[in-house]
Amino acid sequence: MTQETSSVNTGDKPKQRKAVALISGGLDSLLAAKVVQEQGIHVEGINFYTGFCVEGHTHAIRKKDKDKQKRNNSLWVAEQLGIKLHIIDISEEYKDIVLNPKHGYGANLNPCLDCKIFMVNQAQAWAWAEENGFDFIITGEVIGQRPKSQRKETMPIIARESGADDRLLRPLCAKNLMPTLPEREGWVNRDELYDFSGRSRKPQFELAKKFGFEDFAQPAGGCCFLTDANYSKKLADLWDARGERRYELDDIMLLKVGRHIRPKKNFKLIVSREEGENNFLRGYKKQFTSIHTVSHGGPLTLLDGDFDKEDIKLAAQIVARYSGGKNADQVTVQVENYKGTSFVMDVPPMSADEIKQEWHV
Amino acid sequence: MSQNTLDCRNLLCPMPVIRTQNALKELSEGELLEVTCTDPGTLSDIPTWCRINHHEVVSTEENNHEIVFVIKK
Known about the structure:
The structure holds 2 protein chains of 2 kinds. Chain A is of the alpha/beta class.
């Protein structure tokens, strides 16, 4: 271990310096943590759960994804590094970041810059706490890698507004930035940090190869659903229909599942597309009115919003369209409210043409 | 033997992991925690989290779509 570079002499015993690394589960944060770990620093990981994380949920829900590996990539990264991982639920506090981003959104409803500032802020509050006693924070940021948050001019903004200041080290692009405290104090050797920039992933792949990392995750839109155009569209629809910008955790979970169809502004249907989604939606039957087909096989559907009897009939006809009885004259459906009270009705399935394209959220 | 229990049914990963982590914080070394989950993702995530944080999964049982872990801090 290169103890010389990671310790200071404070009398008899050199102090082991400690860094907390923001771990998303992607390659960059894996490499950033590894680079610092290689310099003899004690590294632990921190991972934040916002509710919009791609990790976990989707592969647990959809049956078609069942064969894919179900690992949580942040846990996988921590295991590769041999470090502890602290997972923090920030989903409640995070609402304010999504609803009121000071620095605005990216291409979709992704408040990437505010998000990074918030996460580094949360990390430093945790890291400096007496019982944890970390010296600095590591992120996998690379200048020019992301159009909204990872730019030359945003790097100092994140450091300043998060409160981490010069205790925030970006090992993958440190040489393109002013030296931070860990570099100035000699806790880490700046010469052994990197100068990556731009959108190319080649330098990261080469470094991964050097360290012997294989099979790392490379999510196309990063690790957050808010960078996904279709997801953002559904979230915007939810706010529009409610006439206010707010959400609960269940709302954003349900946006990840099923076909969302809004035939009228006051309500929408969430129609499962397969067995896995059926099982998932079943867990919400005590919170929503649900419809399932009785005379034919068909999807479980939740109704979200305010609706009257006519609306329920309309919804039932749409559900019937997605059932095995779509060509039948009548389909019998059971409508059950969240208290478990139910009734049965026969409806003619809607034709494909009657389900308007603009209803699909 | 007294055993602490944690209900993580109907929670999706990573919530069961987070709840387990927070519950273990309150326990002393050597104490047991029984965690009941329904998300199949926990079959991978909880043992991995335990390995990297140096806790022991004493047993894992699956029945009726429920997964019950016993974890030793």
